[in-house]
Please model this.
Amino acid sequence: MENTKLKLITDALLQQMPVGVVLSDEKGNIVYANRAIGELRHVDRHEIIGQKLINCCKPDSRSGVQRAMDLLLQNKSKTFNRLVEDKAHKQFYMDSYSRIEDGNGQTMGVALFSEDITQKRELELKRATAYRMLQESDENMRKRYHELLLASLETIMKVLEKRDSYTSDHSSHVCDYALKMYERRFGIGVDFETLRTAAILHDIGKIGIPDEILHKEGKLTEQEKDVIRQHSLIAEEILKPLDTGSNLSSVVRHHHEHFDGSGYPDGLKGEEIPMLSRIIAIADAYDAMLSTRPYRDAMSYQAAINEIITHIGKQFDPEWVKIFMDLANTGSI
Model:
């Protein structure tokens, strides 16, 4: 009788929560879903009972979520978070997965808590945009110039990438990975828009590199490598007019610096390298490794991840690699 009463009270409490709650057993089968999860995620909560928890995720994210679920069920992780975008309903959710244990520490299943953060995120975006605009002097004229120049450069970048099947959409991928890393740590902070622009335009300097070098099949000579390395300096000169209250051009100039000081163009190391450059460096390398290039085939996901891990503290900032791996392990990138 006491157990029945306790179960009724627990169920009533979970049903009243504004946060969506889904519980699964140790095999990943859903055994409970509260009312809020149906309202938030536009599903019939009764129909998902008995389904695999992983099947409630978008198909393209299931493999990543499964990796994270395995870590939970194998007692190698206590919890993980994922930012989920529902494009059909124009909503964003923060999903938190936690391992459920019995009194002896044995795994009983997984709890998913889903919160609608759409309005909160929109407010943060507005604040970030407002902050950026407050940094600009002669606001009206400068704003028009800034937006026109930025749009023009982004269009040029898209045209450049479409000319080369090997790097098509590379900048948009790098931007996506970089923003997810930044948002995981800071939310939509004051540097969000600067990072977005820098990531999209990080390779704009390649407009000044001859095609016969840029698209050469096979290994480059040392002289040709020196020419390629000029692209970050060319980009800095192109982007200086956009530096109204930001360090955009500096971020792009230094996105090939290495954490141990072995990069270019200035051999900066550690925190001498702008933080946003350190983020882009990881995102840029990861997408490049997943892409087929004239001189090599695309790497597998695991091979690319192994390369990132191998170069922790050498090419990449350990702190930001940890954030990158949190996203990779949860299928967010």
